[in-house]
């Protein structure tokens, strides 16, 4: 039997009760309100449990289509179906643009209503499950999930937690195996970009030419074998975080291209004369002393200064001896 909570907002008391009775007979829990304001108040109290909102278009204190953004803001994972006795194509189009699941004319058969409700409820349930899974994945990559209580680890976490909510570029310094990618993931999860992609690439794992196409993508025909357009990792990470591991291994020519991205927030795909906008937060990591590499001319000094806006030294395990036992017990 179907289950879940539905908020029904309609000022026609008789019709509202009939619709509620039909839905309750199917196994749904139905909250009823007769005005937009009371509907918003009830939704505010029950936002976590409401999966579907059935809302009349012509309410005494609001138009249902205009109310849509406020309903979506209070319960972004819920679906909305608008009900009207005066259905028009224009209102239907506008409702769908504002994010309504569908638009139903009053007087349609109960069967049609129930089919539409079940489809909307299925979608809302799926959205809740996805959100819960994302929450669980986020918890696995949070600062709180890091194992250890050593002073060195706590100091590194404190620095990373400070910079995480900002848009600043971060450079993680530490030897191989110290957990730099864990820090990068935790920074992403604690940032406003957490709902967008986290994309990681090891710069030492690709030859120069291949890494350039991986990072920036290419247009069809850019080189032999480029039979289709390909998105680069900067596009794949759009809106989120791009983690460049072992950035000290980056070829000097690619360093210039990366500097361009950091300075202008745009890049050129291979074979494309037009620039592509880049909307990513960059976190880089290295096991080298990049300042020393820059002083020796092995790494671009201007790129180093762009990358080292905020440096987080990630301690090696030999500086966290008190964390060895908890780590061994965990693994």
Summarize the structure.
With 331 residues, this protein is an alpha/beta fold. It contains 13 helices and 16 strands. It has helices at 13-25, 36-46, 64-74, 89-97, 110-140, 151-163, 180-189, 208-216, 233-236, 252-264, 290-295, 301-307, 324-330; strands spanning 5-9, 29-33, 50-56, 58-59, 62-63, 79-84, 102-105, 170-173, 198-202, 217-218, 230-231, 241-245, 266-268, 275-277, 281-286, 310-313.
Description of the structure:
This protein has 331 residues and is of the alpha/beta class. The chain has 2 domains: 5-138, Response regulator (Rossmann fold); 148-330, P-loop containing nucleotide triphosphate hydrolases (Rossmann fold, 3-Layer(aba) Sandwich). It is 44% helix and 20% strand. It contains 13 helices and 16 strands. The protein has helices at 13-25, 36-46, 64-74, 89-97, 110-140, 151-163, 180-189, 208-216, 233-236, 252-264, 290-295, 301-307, 324-330, and strands at 5-9, 29-33, 50-56, 58-59, 62-63, 79-84, 102-105, 170-173, 198-202, 217-218, 230-231, 241-245, 266-268, 275-277, 281-286, 310-313. A 5-stranded parallel β-sheet has the order 2-1-3-6-7, sandwiched between helices. The protein has a 5-stranded parallel β-sheet with strand order 9-12-15-8-16. Helix 4 links the parallel strand 6 and strand 7. The longest helix has 31 residues, at 110-140. It is elongated.
């Amino acid at each position: 039997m179907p289950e879940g909570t539905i908020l029904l907002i309609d000022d026609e008391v008789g019709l509202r009760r009939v619709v509620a009775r039909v839905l309750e007979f199917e196994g749904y829990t139905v909250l009823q309100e007769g005005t937009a304001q009371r509907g918003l108040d009830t939704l505010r109290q029950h936002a976590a449990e409401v999966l579907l909102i059935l809302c009349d278009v012509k309410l005494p204190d609001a138009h249902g289509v205009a109310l849509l953004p406020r309903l979506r803001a209070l319960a972004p994972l819920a679906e909305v179906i608008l009900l009207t006795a005066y259905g028009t194509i224009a209102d239907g189009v506008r409702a769908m643009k504002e994010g309504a699941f569908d638009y139903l004319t009053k007087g349609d058969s109960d069967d049609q209503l129930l089919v539409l409700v079940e489809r909307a409820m299925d979608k809302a349930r799926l959205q809740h499950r996805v959100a819960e899974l994302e929450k669980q994945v986020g918890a696995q990559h949070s600062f709180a999930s890091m194992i250890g209580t050593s002073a060195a680890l706590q100091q590194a976490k404190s620095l990373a937690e400070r910079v995480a909510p900002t848009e600043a570029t971060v450079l993680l310094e530490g030897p191989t195996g110290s957990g730099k990618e864990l820090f990068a993931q935790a920074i992403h999860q604690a940032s406003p970009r957490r709902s967008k992609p986290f994309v990681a690439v090891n710069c030492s794992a690709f030859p120069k030419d291949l890494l350039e196409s991986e990072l920036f993508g290419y247009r069809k025909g850019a080189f032999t074998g480029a039979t289709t357009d390909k998105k680069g990792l900067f596009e794949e990470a759009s809106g989120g975080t791009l983690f460049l591991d072992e950035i000290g291994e980056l070829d000097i020519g690619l360093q210039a291209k990366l500097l361009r991205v950091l300075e202008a927030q745009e890049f050129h795909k291979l074979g494309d004369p037009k620039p592509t906008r880049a909307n990513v937060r960059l976190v880089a990591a290295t096991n080298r002393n990049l300042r020393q590499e820059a002083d020796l001319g092995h790494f671009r000094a201007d790129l180093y200064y762009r990358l080292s806006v905020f440096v987080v030294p990630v301690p090696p395990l030999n500086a966290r001896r008190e964390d060895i036992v908890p780590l061994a017990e965990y693994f």
